[in-house]
Amino acid sequence: MLSGAGVVMFIQESLSNPDPAVPHCHCPSIARTRSGDLLVAWYAYPEQETRGGRLILARRPAGSTRFQRGQPILEQMRSSLGNPVLFCDVEDRLHLLFVVLRGHYWTTAVVNTSHSDDSGRTWSSPQALPFEPGMMVRYPPIERQNGYYLLPAYDENRNHTAMLTAGPDGTGWFPVTRFDGMKAIQGSIVRQGESELVMMLRPCGDNRTCLRSISEDDGRSWSPVMRTALPNPLSGVAAFQVNGTTCAVYNHTTEHRRHPLILSYSEDRGTSWSGPIHIDERAMEVSYPSFVTDPEGAAHGVYTAGRNRIQYVSFDRSWWEK
């Protein structure tokens, strides 16, 4: 832990699966409730990531400095599960989107949704969304000015991004936009201004740079997907926003590996970037980051560490500008 001027600049904690017989974990998502609880969900699996996947939820209550031990959720689901996405709506209902595999690979995945009115202690019966198999989710939706939600999803069969929308209650998702140009998946959206949105995306195929798209009308239309100057080894890119600054957390390399994990930031909607600033330099998989910010401007993030634990980190702007 680094600190300065009495303010915590960088803290970290490792989270692990509750069952040692299921040693592997991946693809965490983090959300913050209105009361200040931090919740992290991920999927755990015994050997292959598309076989026997189960969802785990860990909680750090408001005022606490440590996460409670993660616990399995939705244990009634018998198929392999993956890619949990957490978010809270304006009424502080906690929503969970995740995929259920009908076969043995992500191309057979079906998006399901559930919700909790007690901060993740109990959950509604999961409901499958009416999309073709292969539709996937990775990052949470953003609330639009009209109160509706905008969710980046992607087609695992075609490696294209689609945009879904739902009402203020976070239900009834349906597609509104499809990005049919450059192959790009796993979009992460941040609000840059009153009507400006920036979406960072993971590349596919031969392209080895982080991608972005911009909306200037609150998500009604989007620019074509564009390359950035940030290298990427075909791995996830998390975006968050602090005081008008767009931040991206990703693997800063074009080599076929998922390390190191770094932060870069932009003051001009992703046209130019400052950094990179190392978050995790270990020579192991440190990938699939997910970040939220709190009202004080601190960033809270989680990512896969070695496929055997989930790493939590938190820092404020003074850390990356030190």
Give the helices and strands, then pairings.
Blueprint: E1 2-4, E2 7-15, E3 24-32, E4 38-45, E5 54-60, E6 71-73, E7 81-88, E8 94-101, E9 109-116, E10 127-128, E11 135-137, E12 142-143, E13 149-155, E14 160-166, E15 174-179, E16 184-191, E17 197-203, E18 209-215, E19 226-231, E20 238-242, E21 245-251, E22 261-266, E23 274-280, E24 286-293, E25 299-305, E26 309-315, H1 317-320
Antiparallel strand pairs: 1-2, 2-26, 3-4, 4-5, 5-6, 7-8, 8-9, 9-10, 11-13, 12-13, 13-14, 14-15, 16-17, 17-18, 18-19, 20-21, 21-22, 22-23, 24-25, 25-26
Question: Could you characterize the architecture of this molecule?
Answer:
With about 325 residues, the chain is an all-beta fold. The chain has one domain (about 10-320): 6 Propeller (Neuraminidase), CATH 2.120.10. About 0% of the residues lie in helices and about 50% in strands. It has 1 helix and 26 strands. It has one helix at about 315-320; strands spanning about 1-5, 5-15, 25-30, 40-45, 55-60, 70-75, 80-90, 95-100, 110-115, 125-130, 135, 140-145, 150-155, 160-165, 175-180, 185-190, 195-205, 210-215, 225-230, 240, 245-250, 260-265, 275-280, 285-295, 300-305, 310-315. Strands 1-2-26-25-24 form a 5-stranded antiparallel sheet. Strands 11, 12, 13, 14 and 15 form a 5-stranded antiparallel sheet that branches. Strand 14 and strand 15 (about 175-180) form a beta hairpin. The longest helix has 4 residues, at about 315-320. It is globular and about 45 Å long. The two termini are about 15 Å apart.
